[in-house]
UniProtKB/TrEMBL annotation:
Protein name as it appears in the record: G protein-activated inward rectifier potassium channel 1
Transmembrane helix among keywords: yes
Any one GO biological process: regulation of monoatomic ion transmembrane transport
Residue ranges occupied by any Potassium channel inwardly rectifying transmembrane domain in the UniProt entry: 6-146
Catalytic activity of the protein: K(+)(in) = K(+)(out)
Record carries keyword Heme: no
Transmembrane parts of this sequence: 43-66, 78-97, 117-141
A Pfam entry, by short name: IRK
Membrane topology of this protein: Multi-pass membrane protein
């Protein structure tokens, strides 16, 4: 099977290995590292961090009560312990949870004759705020990531080559399945193809820009209905020498990148796909999907990927 640089669903088939000493950079940016983790590992870190922090802090409260002898004299009405009604580790754990969660049942409380307990209480408050801000912020950012929004941005399964306005063009279709719009949507295309320079240097997976209207502003999309993106094949195009016959022997990949701002959240969203040489149909055109009905336009997505053959010269633009 043809090895793709970018899958149809937008996942990049690139793995980084042999990082050596550079792997420590992941810990330097720990917040981003946690956000990038998969959900199962993210939840595991979330649970383990809170569990360990709770057990450690509860052990410190139990340790203070043990060192002061409060555990043996807790039931003495004339004795003033550090924390009232703390008899063992479970009661120390419950006191910590009541303090950390600001529940405050009133049965357990710190007395004024325990300076070490006051210091530990201040430390617990600061540490709890830091842990909450870090982990809850990480979970919030991960839940609000617009990756799922990209799944409702669809691309045609194949690209087509045919004539438009008397010029040979490479075209593909993009659509938005949601009623909410993509603000400032922009489309970009990259041609991924290995080549050898005149000096003999081999460039694997060399990236070349495909013009889809950058100079005219056609790359700025008003994506309220499916649009057909057009790349005009001219003397400046990498497909200047591409013909119907040479298409069978070529090996390339066209990576399409759609970026925009999600209207409901204001976050930037990116959707990607790719087309290999066997997914480029020469002499085809997309089926129409728009129809006018009573007071509105209807989009028929059942015809979104459909194409039909049209008369197209089999020669390249150079020929």
């Amino acid at each position: 099977r043809r090895q793709r640089f970018v899958d149809k669903n937008g996942r990049c088939n690139v793995q980084h290995g042999n990082l050596g000493g550079e792997s420590g950079r992941y810990l330097a940016d720990l917040f981003t590292t946690l956000v990038d983790l998969k959900w199962r590992w993210n939840l595991l870190v979330f649970l383990l961090t809170y569990t360990v922090a709770w057990l450690v802090m509860a052990s410190m409260w139990w340790g203070i009560a043990y060192l002061r002898g409060d555990l043996h004299r807790a039931h003495d009405g004339a004795y003033s312990p550090c924390v009232a009604n703390v008899y063992n580790f479970p009661s120390a754990f419950l006191f910590f949870i009541e303090t950390e969660a600001t529940i405050g049942y009133g049965h357990r409380y710190i007395t004024e004759r325990c300076p070490e307990g006051i210091v530990l209480f201040l430390f617990q408050s600061l540490l709890g705020s830091v842990v909450d801000a870090f982990l809850i912020g990480c979970m919030f950012i991960k839940m609000s990531q617009p990756k799922k929004r990209a799944e409702t941005l669809v691309f045609s399964r194949a690209a087509v080559v045919s004539q438009r306005d008397g010029k040979l063009c490479l075209m593909f279709r993009v659509g938005n399945l949601r009623n909410s719009h993509m603000v400032s949507a922009q489309i970009r295309c990259k041609l991924i193809k290995s080549r050898q320079t005149p000096e003999g240097e081999f460039l694997p997976l060399d990236q070349c820009e495909l013009d889809v209207g950058f100079g005219t502003g056609a790359d700025q999309l008003f994506l309220v209905s499916p649009l057909t993106i057009c790349h005009e094949i001219d003397s400046r195009s990498p497909f200047f020498c591409l013909s119907k016959r040479s298409l069978r022997s070529e090996q390339f990949e066209i990576v399409v990148i759609l970026e925009g701002i999600v209207e409901t959240t204001g976050m930037t969203c990116q959707a990607r796909t790719s087309y290999t040489e066997d997914e480029v149909l020469w002499g085809h055109r997309f089926l129409p999907v728009m129809s006018l009905e009573d007071g509105f336009f209807r989009v028929d997505y059942s015809q979104f990927h459909g194409t039909f053959e049209v008369p197209t010269p089999p020669y390249s633009v150079k020929e």
